[in-house]
C-alpha cells in the first residue's frame, strides 16, 4: 500500500522533483536512462536511487527502456503544477487576503 509519505518522499528533494517533472514533460520522447542522466547532470547512483523511489511510489513506470508517468503519477504531477502556480501567486494571495481582512475589520491593525 502506497502512502502519502511515500509519494511526497519520492519527490521531496529538488533533483527528484526535477526528474519527475522531466519525465512528465518529455512524455517518453527522451526518457531513457542515459538521456535523463545526462540532461539532469546526475551521477548514476543518484539517478537510480531517485528513480527507484519514483517507481516504488507508483509515479513512474518503465516500458521498453523508457520511463512514463503512471495514471497516478499524472494526477500527482497535476497537483504539483497547481502548487507551483499557487506559489507563483503567493504574494498576490497574501495582499488580497489582507485587503479582504481590512474591509471586514477596518479597525484591525495588520502588524
How would you describe what is shown here?
This protein has 111 residues and is mainly alpha-helical. Strands 1-2 form a two-stranded antiparallel sheet. The protein has one domain: Arc Repressor Mutant, subunit A (Orthogonal Bundle), CATH 1.10.10.10. The protein has 6 helices and 2 strands, in the order ααααββαα. Helix 2 packs across helix 4. The mean pLDDT is 86.
Features:
111 residues, mainly alpha, Arc Repressor Mutant, subunit A, two-stranded antiparallel ribbon, elongated
What is the CATH superfamily classification?
A: Winged helix-like DNA-binding domain superfamily/Winged helix DNA-binding domain
At the first level of CATH, the class is: Mainly Alpha
Which descriptor suits the 3D outline? elongated
> How many angstroms does the end-to-end distance come to?
46 Å
Number of helices: 6
On the 0 to 100 scale, the average pLDDT is 86
Strand order of the largest sheet: 1-2
Class based on secondary structure composition and strand pairing: mainly alpha
Give a quick account of the main beta sheet: strands, pairing sense, barrel closure.
2 strands, antiparallel
Number of strands: 2
Helix percent band: 55-70%
Order of helices and strands: HHHHEEHH
Amino acid at each position: 500500500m502506497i502512502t502519502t509519505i511515500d509519494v511526497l518522499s519520492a519527490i521531496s528533494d529538488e533533483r527528484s522533483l526535477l526528474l519527475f517533472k522531466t519525465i512528465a514533460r518529455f512524455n517518453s520522447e527522451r526518457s531513457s536512462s542515459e538521456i535523463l542522466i545526462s540532461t539532469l547532470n546526475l551521477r548514476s547512483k543518484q539517478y537510480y536511487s531517485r528513480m527507484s523511489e519514483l517507481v516504488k511510489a507508483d509515479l513512474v513506470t518503465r516500458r521498453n527502456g523508457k520511463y512514463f508517468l503512471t495514471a497516478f503519477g499524472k494526477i500527482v504531477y497535476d497537483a504539483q503544477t497547481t502548487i507551483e502556480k499557487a506559489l507563483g501567486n503567493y504574494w498576490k494571495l497574501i495582499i488580497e487576503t489582507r485587503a479582504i481582512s481590512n474591509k471586514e475589520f477596518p479597525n484591525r491593525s495588520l502588524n
